[in-house]
Design goal:
mainly alpha
Length: 199
């Protein structure tokens, strides 16, 4: 196998793992938000019912993942210009991730029988251990991790929401985001654990 071909497989699997973890976290965010609303009683903070909040979250989620939805409009939550700009940036990232995930999925089904993109166990172990550098820091100080994460992905401070102008931040709590990151991390680890255990 050439050096070029030997790098294609690890790159493919790394992209597939990352995009799978993000898509999985997006899907899991719906039940997770319900759980955190019930536990933290954030519905009382925003003075809405659970169903009202979830209806608004559905509107937000649909805007973020559907490329043809160009305008964000939540029924009960106002959105400031800064928040709208941030959600537009997040939408671009989500659409890119979803597109890459679909492409990886298609490649998987097209090459499944040939096993041409089978991942070497050394690479699988390396990718499996990679998050160990980040996990202890994220677990002990998620707030700082969250700030660094946003500085890495965004070149502005639009993600710093003001609860008085964007009350949805009272519902999308730090605990909720931490749980979404945890789900993404678990999916990522399971992906490479599966590759490592394959014969």
């Amino acid at each position: 196998m050439s050096k070029k071909n030997s790098l294609i497989s690890p790159l493919y699997h790394f992209i597939f793992a990352i995009t799978s973890s993000v898509v999985g976290a997006i899907i899991a965010s719906w039940p997770l938000l319900v759980i955190f609303i019930l536990i933290q009683k954030t519905n009382q903070t925003v003075k809405m019912s659970l169903m009202q909040i979830m209806h608004n979250y559905n509107q937000l989620l649909w805007y973020l993942v559907w490329p043809f939805q160009q305008q964000l409009k939540m029924t009960n939550f106002p959105t400031s210009k800064m928040a709208a700009a941030h959600f537009a940036d997040v939408k671009k990232l989500f659409i890119l991730v979803i597109f890459a995930f679909i492409c990886c999925l298609l490649i998987y089904f097209l090459t499944k029988k040939k096993k041409s993109l089978r991942l070497n166990k050394t690479w699988a172990l390396l990718f499996l251990l990679l998050p160990i550098v980040v996990v202890p820091f994220a677990m002990t100080n998620f707030d700082s991790f969250f700030v660094i994460f946003h500085h890495m992905l965004f070149n502005n401070n639009n993600w710093l929401f003001d609860p008085s102008t964007d009350p949805i931040i009272n519902v999308l709590t730090e605990g909720f985001f931490a749980s979404c990151f945890a789900v993404a991390g678990i999916i990522y680890e399971l992906y490479f654990a599966d590759k490592l255990l394959q014969r």
